[in-house]
Amino acid sequence: MAPRKKRTPTSKRPAGIDRNALRKLQDEREQIGHDRLQRLLQTIVDRMGGTKPEFGVVDGLMELSEARMVALAADPPQANAAVNATIAKCKLMGLYIDRSQVAHGSMPAAQEGEEAIIERLRERAGSRAADEFMKFIANMRRAYDGGPTIDGDAAEIE
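Above: the chain sequence. Below: its structure as tokens.
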């Protein structure tokens, strides 16, 4: 049996692909990305030179869009930074609410019993306001105990 011929790294390439042509294509791609990044950076520098005293929502959206484009134009593209810029744009427009940041009161206040909450309401708003609030809550409990629930798919609430 004849010994097997060792394969060289060049023998793994498909026929017809020139190594120099491939390297040239990669260099051109990198140059295009570099040029695009330089144009974006120049746009940002130009904008920063003419900063306005007031900064509005539109300005914030434009800067976040530019940051997203810079992140995607980087080599390699920075997908995480692009996603963060998109999320920041959505937050600025009110389309995205981070539920982990929505909190009302401190944690001990959330764990208080009903009596402690009513007592604090009496201290802050007065006895009459606290009594009216408790009547309102009692009426709401009666109205919804065993009654129809509010459902987004329901056509009509009885």
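Confidence is low (pLDDT under 50) at residues 151-158.
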